[in-house]
């Protein structure tokens, strides 16, 4: 293969006049981190609520939690983003649909909410497994002390369950960061999108995607290192992740 390597391309001005090609990639990285952070907040809050519903002694709550998880878990993320971005505005009432279409930065909000809902199903499963792994005696002892159902979850079950499932939650957070790359399909120029733009403008495809790969690896390394310290700090003695 006769390929002309040019690592100095990163310091050449980009066609948009917004700085160098390296600035393009870094702006994409910032957008990736913003999208992943908002999506993870949505996933953590929504997934926790659904995960709790799947463990309540209520058939209706169990059924709703089951339907929610199966809906978001069994549909590809790419299809979900297309539904939220292209189909939803067309099936809503005309005024609501126009509002969605004219929403500033619509690809960002659609990607963050879509990825967040997709990942929330996985968080719900993790939390359900964490609560299910706790000894039944803890729930019964808390109830015997006079705590309400909300208080049992708030003060006993959830603090223990979250500490147990912290390692798989770290993996889900990393998956959230990687899933932001799918947002390029609805026009969001995050890191992968900016790498693709750089490749189209400069024809230096290997340099562009090598840089994007290294930036993804750097972000993941920082997240993994930080979560390892957090896991050791909150580890429960006697459990799998305990000291």
Helix and strand element order: HHHHHHHHHH
- In terms of DSSP E residues, the strand content is under 5%
Oligomer state of the chains in this structure: single chain
Report the uncertain regions.
Answer: none
Name the shape in a single word: globular
Radius of gyration: 22 Å
N-to-C span: 53 Å
Helical coverage, percent range: over 70%
Tally of helical runs: 10
Mean pLDDT: 91
Provide an overview of this structure.
With 243 residues, this protein is mainly α. The chain has helices spanning 21-53, 59-73, 77-91, 94-101, 106-132, 136-144, 149-164, 166-179, 191-202, 205-234. It is globular. It starts with 20 loop residues before the first helix and ends in a 9-residue tail after the last helix.
Which terms would index this structure?
243 residues; globular; 0% strand; mainly alpha; single chain
Summarize the structure.
The protein is mostly helical.
Question: What's the helix and strand layout?
Answer:
Elements lengths: L20 H33 L5 H15 L3 H15 L2 H8 L4 H27 L3 H9 L4 H16 L1 H14 L11 H12 L2 H30 L9
